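Sequence only, no structure available. Ideas?
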Amino acid sequence: MRLKSVKIYGFKTFATKTEIELDGSLIAVVGPNGCGKSNIVDAILWGLGETSAKHLRAQTGKEVIFSGSANRKPLGFAEVTLLFDNEDGSLPIDTPEVSITRRLKRSGDTQYQINKRNCRLRDVADLLADSGLGRAGYAIVGQSEIDQALAASPLQRRAWIDEAAGVQRYRARRQESLRRLAAADSHLERVTDVLQELDRQRDPLKRQAEDAKRYKSVNSSLREMELGLLATDVAKAIQQLTDLDERSRAQTSLAKLESERADDLEREAEEASQKIAQLSQRIDILREQRHSDQTALEQASSLKKIAEHKIDSLAEWESRMSEESDEATDRLELSEKDLEEALESYDKESAALEALKANLASADDEAKGLAKELKQAEHQLREGRQRQDKRQRLEVEQTLRQDRLKEIAEEVKGIVEALPDLQEAVTEAEKQFEELNGKLIEARSDVEKAEEEMRELREASEHHAAKTRAAMAELAALDGRKRGILATLEAHEGLAHGAKAVLEAAKDGRLSDKYVPVGEAIDVDPDVSLAVETALGNSVHDLIVNDEQAAKAAIEFLKHERAGRATFQPLTLMREQRQNDDLRAVLGKEGVVGLGSDLVECDKRHVPVIESLLGRIVVVETLDVGLKLAKTRGWKRLVSLDGEVVHGSGAVSGGRTKSHRHGMVQRRAELHEIEDEAINLQASLDKMNRIVTDKEEIQKELNARIDAGQPVIKARQIEADEAKAWLLSLQHEIQATEKSQERLERESKKLNAESSELIASIDIPALETVRDDLMKQLAGKSSDSDQAAERLNEAESRSREALARKQEAERRLAGIKD
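Reply:
I predicted one. Tokens follow.
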């Protein structure tokens, strides 16, 4: 036995799959410190089942998984496969090569495989127990272990010698057996304690049982007495119910009479209510009349008091008026005398006033004529000055208008010359803005396209992740089913007791030959597994042996151990099975699946046994097909895919129990089916992982595109904004220029329309001389008129005073007479 190759993936620094071929030409692995030489040895130790992280130069078991680097992401598991050459049969497996695989996931799940079949760490240890590669006998020595070997204790050296001699395996089994015996003794002690406890509780329980019996007897008597009492109570209740029914009928008749009486009383009450309502209405009317009468009485009383008060006031006024009448007579005489004096004075002043007015009238006429001429002269002078001012203003305005028209013409000329340049600048700015805006849209489109691809990629990644999780869950479920089936197959569950005893004896070395159950020697398709299982019947428990001596030895063992019975199939006693024409004719019929021996796969050495058991078993699709072929010949049994059997004797078997369980053949078929499904799922998972890896790379590229596109978008946005602002400013400027041109043209038209002829010149000094002469003449007349006016004012003042005295005397006289 030798190690042929080592496959490493995800272990420590092995981030990629690495395979090391050990064909005998490899002497040593050399390299600088830190390149990973020791990791190869650690991988071999780990693959052989080393569980100590310290021996693998790690802190924890999960540290052996590749944890990532600057250029690679971490892996999710570590796997090591060791391939051994087993041509010499050093390992107890009938294959020329033996592979041992160990896989560790980051979740902590560990998986071991022997020849790609899941197993336990203990199975790996048992496989390597006699090979010198056991747990205590590794043929791998490190630098730090040489001193330990030299300083090893006798017990450690004995363990190495036992391992080298192949004794360690049996020593381990002995220790396991002793451990089981100790556990059995412990269980027996607990059983003894339980029995003692039950013995201790038996007497109290016996007394409690007797008490329970007495309780049941007394309870039965009590129940009979209670039934008697209940019967008496029921009779009394019936009598009471009869009496109550009679009383109820009497009360019902009485209630009917009271009801009729109540109806009469209700009618009377209704009539009384109507009368009460009428009386209430009459009372309201009387109350209103009383209230109106009371109000009229109060008003009459008030009027009476007012009349009395007026009478008192009139009497008082009459007395006061009699006193005033005497005083008025005296005042009347005095007032008549004053009036006569006032009339005489008024007549005199009026005559004097009329004479002054006549003298003043002639002077006023001359002054009015001069004033009128002066007014006309001043009016002419004022109009002349206004026309002269207007002429001067028009001259100034005409000068300013000509200057403004010249300025407008120059401004319009400048605007006309500047407009083409502005138009050209606007066109160039629009072109630059469209170019920059196009670049901005292109950059945004690139980023949006990358973001859209990123969203689609994320959705696809989530979809793949969901599919991956579902596939992993399905794979885990298949692995659980596979482990369960393997456990049942390894435990030979369902195998007859005698056959199982023979296999255990062969495994322990008590029987030297090799025994293979028929059910474990064949592989069938799941679709026909039930039919093959049914066709084999009890023969599925038969043991295939090399010769009749091995069968005889096993039978002697079963007799000696009283371990049951078993059926053996010696290969040397098997006869060749030949198909007859009748059987070939049946195989060609419609609905026939095939011959039982043709539907199974087995080792070439076991073919004679399988031919003898299934060589004349015909598998059909349904029971109906089997019944149609029941009268044909050449076969032993017709078995349908659902397990119904048509025997050669004509008997028909079928049906199914509630607790139907799969046999070894169906379990092996299911195991192969599960393995195929697991392989397909694993392939799908690998494909999904590759897709996920590719998508991650694409996602990185898209992220890089998006990150690189953002600054470009920002820069182009700034450029586009600046170009847009410049374009808008130019557009505003050209609009303002055009508006200014229109405004100037309108102003020019308005100024040209407002131009007018000048007013003729006027002689202002001549008009001023005429006015001054008239003012002098009027001043001379005004002095004479002023003196006469003063005398007239004094006469008028005296006349007004005489008139006032006359009016006052008349007023007093009139007041006295009244």
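Residues 447 and 708 are 9 Å apart (CA to CA).
Hope that gets you unstuck.
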